Amino acid sequence: MKFLLQDAQRSLLRGLGRRYLAASATSTEQYSKRNYANNVSEYNTVFASLTVKRRNYLLRDAYDDMMLDGVQPSRDTFHSLIAGTMKGSRLQDAFYFRDEMKAMGLVPDVVLYNFLISTCGKCKNSDQAIKVLDEMKNYGVKPNGQTYICLLNACAAAGRLDPVYTIVRDMTSAGVGLNKYCYAGLIVAHKNKTPVSEDVAAKIIEFVEQSKNWSTVEASTGVNAENVMMNVSEEELYNLPTADYIHRRQGFLDKELTVYHVAFDAFVELKNVQVDLLTSLAMETLVELLKSEKKDPDVFILVQMMSLGIVEQQDMWQLKIRSLTRAVLEQVKFKTARAQAEFDQHSKIIKPMCYLHSGDLDRGLQIYDDYMNSKKRIYIELYVALVEGAMIGHTPRGMQIALDKLEEMTQRNFFLNPKMANDLLLIAAGDKKGGYTTANYLWDLMQARNITPWLPAVQAYYNGLKARFVPEEDPRLLQVSSTYEKLARSHRRYSVLPAVVL
């Protein structure tokens, strides 16, 4: 109830503020300068612009201004608003716009309901996603193939295996084949299941093998033209880990490797949960499956491989030595007798892999060097992945490698975006014993590029400087202290709101 009162208060204050500006304007010209939109077309352009700039939190403010101006929203308006809230994972705003739409006599169509289910998945609220599907049926809106895949991935994000398998059974019984996004959802469901099962690595490998026939049923869902017009990719609609990279230049992401993308990303997360031999061996098996299809890993997979610390040994590949122990064999089921016989032949010469005895940092460096020597297009994500991995544990060698690669990145005219810069600064600021050279370099880099620092990163960097007994009159400390106090005040002002007293 408190949140509802606060929300009502914010709407009232916004309305009063807007009316005050309108009343205090001395002329029509001054008012027109303050008013950024006058009709539904202009407001639709504003909503689209806010979404592109990732200022999704301002959509509701702009919509309130639209209401105060007496502009009637259209169906396209709500499509833009709900798509924007989906991109920003703002579940409450998404349902608010749905309710506003229904109050104006506009029934949401299947595309909007798909956006709502996807938003529930982003917020890991699978119960609400199921309720949205029930609402669709009550209003006579027929779900399509994308609806069920959205629901499948929404339940997978919460790690709920039972609803996921129920959806899969319903789709297969209805004669709808499973495409690559369904197999991706199955992998995500097993990855997010808590507690993590012992056979999760074998399950992921099994789904990757089963997905090899997905192309025969790819047309079962089709590509929605409206999603394309609103710049909503299927990867984003289904909350896949590649959603943020789908619009990158050609060569960074190969859409035919979607299942491999999700599998590698799952292994990266699982390695942080359970570091064991089984997971490491299964990861190498995934690399071999990719090789068996005569496909080269794209940049996204290379970044995951750098995080996993996998090194492809060319001589081992030529000998077809599989990095599977007998324990893994008992869990991974080969699809054909020929594959089983082939493994039995090569298993006679299996020996401990030399690279398993080396550090993850060395393996990541090897993958990085191999890609750089290939003369392919260079992406900044390769630098970020290596720098982030090198700073794990804050070892002197790792921090020096991170600093060297940051300097190399700058010399090549690659620049960090705000998220990358703040994430790296937050990690570098955790160094308790080193000279803080890497953290200082990142801070100076952000200042030179006018990148706005985020409160968690600044707070960690500020505490690190104070722990090193830097003189209070030091210019760097004064600058960091001033930035930290400014961000802290702003955070307190926007996070603490007075409740309405009735």
UniProtKB/TrEMBL annotation:
One GO cellular component, as annotated: mitochondrion
Keywords linked to the UniProt accession: Repeat
PROSITE patterns registered for this protein in UniProt: PPR
PPR repeat copies, ranges: 74-108, 109-143, 144-178
Gene3D superfamilies noted in UniProt: Tetratricopeptide repeat domain
Domain of life, per lineage: Eukaryota
Name of the protein described by the UniProt record: Pentatricopeptide repeat-containing protein
Organism this protein belongs to: Dovyalis caffra
